[in-house]
Amino acid sequence: MKSMKLLAVLLSGTLILSGCNMSNTAKGGLIGGGAGAAVGGVLGSILGKGKGAAIGAGIGAAVGAGAGVLIGNRMDKAKKAAEALESAKAEVLQDENGTAYVRVTFDSGILFGTGQSALSASAKSDLSKFATNVLGQNQDMDVAIVGYTDNQGWKGQTAAQSQQKNLQLSEQRANAVNTYLVSELSKAGLSSAQIKTVIGKGEENPVADNNTAAGRQQNRRVEVYLVASQKMVDEANAQAK
Fold first, then answer.
1. Residues contacting residue 90 through CB under 8 Å, at least 6 positions apart
2. Three-state secondary-structure class, residue 177
């Protein structure tokens, strides 16, 4: 009976969130308040065990209702700053425990030439702004950089060899973005210690149909995640008291 009541409560909460046009700030308070759970659990599944541990999964502090609101508000502001970049798409999402985080997606076709990992001039301009206006203004957020490719094969390579080359390319592109962001933060006198994870996932986790040109373009991407750090959670909990 208790388990059925709990299920009903969870379903009710889901319906409320899906049916209302709520801000991420409000959602952070509603979901985070009841969960009291660690931040960033969803990124563990995205990045893989071990790789995701540095992003949020290691945070032991519970996120209360008031702290969830404060974190949601910060994530909304970070999203708005990232949206000012022409080459970036920014979203505020909820992790599996209901705590807000930001995912910024850069189209690899804008950042890099076909099959290349050297950043274009326009990409450098946008990444420089991202470093100073987003990361630099939110140094209490932990950051993960993840590269992806489509599933297209390489000329003269077997399917397995192509998968490996795509994995290597995604890693090289993620590292190129990381290296440039670190350089720009350093130029501005800012720390890059918030960047905790840099990883390539190759053909994994496609967001669109690889059977179409438009879908493959969407799958060729670099994603940057901004997640509340332990420091941010502690401060939010303290302010919410």
1. 78, 79, 80, 82, 83, 102, 103, 104, 105
2. helix
Go through the chain and tell me how many residues it has.
Answer: 241
Which letter does DSSP use for residue 87 in this model?
Answer: T
Residue 144: name the closest of 53, 220, 216 by CA. Answer: 53
Q: Under DSSP, is residue 33 helix (H, G, I), strand (E, B) or coil? A: helix
Q: pLDDT tens for residues 203-224? A: 988 888 989 988 888 888 999 9
Structure tokens at 173: 């592109």
CATH number where 129 lies:
3.30.1330.60
Residue 234, domain extent: 22-240
DSSP 112: B
- Give the strand order in the sheet containing 195-200: 88-94, 100-107, 221-228, 141-148, 195-200
Q: pLDDT tens across 43-92, in order?
A: 665 666 555 544 554 444 567 768 888 999 999 999 999 999 988 999 99
The pLDDT value given to residue 182: 97
| 55 is a domain residue | yes
Angle at 203 between CA 93 and CA 135, to 5 degrees: 40
What SS3 state is found at 199?
Answer: strand
